[in-house]
Write a structure and sequence with these properties.
Length: 273
Amino acid sequence: MPSRPCWAEIDAQAFENNYRYLRSLAAGDAELLAVVKSDAYGHSLALCAPAAVRAGARWLGVTSVEEGMAARALCPDVRVLAMCGCFTGEGALVVEHGLTPVVWEPWHLDELESAVWAAGMDSLPVHLEIDTGMSRQGVGLDAMEPLLARLNAGGPLRLEGVLTHLFAPDETDGRATEAQMAQLDAALEQIGAAGLAGSAGRAEWLSVGASATLLNGDTGRIAALARHWGMKAMLRPGLALYGLAPQFEPDEPAAVAAARALLRLRHFPAPLK
């Protein structure tokens, strides 16, 4: 019998309100991918994924192929990005459940190409992650060339998106982010030189930035960079969807303080009249 006086109250309406508010902060036609990874950070994928879709999300971000299968069962009509890629043997599941995998290793391409051929499909969209300094996952600039050659060789994998993860967007001096953006720009130069950006049928999405980027008003630069390469901007909010704003150091921008007051942990309905 449970005896710990602990519980979590999940308010799907608050989640929906937060998504819509964050969408209003995005520059231009930027897309918002709702991050519901790790069982929606423990808040229940089954509750939060459908709430994101009701609020207008067309993309969901999950941790793994296994979690992507669960998201697909809940939300059959949206795109599901498996942000940590696939393991050996999971390529067939990616194809079967219509998931979009992130790739950054040659063996990712091996696994997925084999699955596409086995299924008799023409192509599978993939998103290439660039390591611009996070050093968690992604391909470095010095190792991109062979991957780009394979994605540009008429094979079954179609480069649909390019992404990176900013590890310090809440540091208001901006030095780490500037260094990462310079790395990203160099990566896009390589991708453009390989003929994989800036023309019809090539990479469509440039996915950069999460909650902090949205809240501090830094989406315009990402949108401008995407337009330069004939792409569209995508942002990936996580924490703010659940009603919390990152802590900015050393000083919090005024825009973030205003946003913090508008994010909702709970939904407060209008009083009855």
